[in-house]
Design a protein that fits this description.
Keywords: Membrane, Methylation, Transmembrane, Transmembrane helix. The chain has about 180 residues and is α+β, with helices and mostly antiparallel strands. Helix content is about 30%, strand content about 30%.
Length: about 180
């Protein structure tokens, strides 16, 4: 029997079909995972903002219950929100002022990405467009909150998150109107 030997110069080079298929499958899996991870940035930011607002409200509520401090309020604007303290300016004058705090202080949304609306007793309330803060959700040191519905939406899209606030102090975030 004769054995055929290939000379060094005539050796076959290249990839087999199986090697090419494995590489293509890996590229497809990585591309799929990247697409899922990136997703719609507006939807993710809306959910994060709704969770952040619920967390801020819950933090302020819990802090008030623990310390027994003075009443606070959540002030809303179309472009952001802040926890408010009632400040005595003199014997006859009181004013709600935004807390200057990294967690509870003023928080503004990225312009054009998220907007707020507020509903109480089934009616939509107007939100301030001025520099002063108006209280919308009052927090009592007894644990009660002003009931209402905060609506976070992405302008021009059907992306909405609802923050439902009950009198007894429960705060729930959902993507469906309660």
């Amino acid at each position: 029997m004769k054995q055929r030997r290939l000379s060094r110069g005539s050796a076959q080079t290249g990839f087999t079909l199986i090697e090419l298929l494995v590489v293509m499958v890996l590229i497809g899996v990585i591309a799929g995972l990247a697409t899922l991870a990136i997703g719609d940035g507006a939807d993710r930011e809306l959910r994060q903002e709704a969770q952040r607002l619920a967390g801020v409200l819950q933090l302020a509520h819990d802090e008030l219950l623990i310390t027994g401090g003075a009443d606070r309020a959540l002030g809303l604007r179309k472009e952001g929100y802040s926890m408010l303290d009632l400040v005595l300016l003199d014997d006859a004058t009181r004013e709600w002022q935004a807390l200057q705090d990294p967690q509870l202080g003023p928080h503004y949304f990225t312009e054009g990405v998220v907007e707020l609306e507020y509903e109480t007793d089934g009616a939509r309330q107007s939100l301030s467009q001025t520099d002063s803060w108006k209280p919308h959700v009052r927090l009592s040191n007894t644990g009660e909150l002003t009931p209402g519905l905060i609506v976070l939406r992405v302008p021009g899209k059907d992306l909405v998150q609802y923050l439902s606030i009950s009198l007894e102090g429960s705060i729930e975030v959902s993507n469906e109107r309660p």
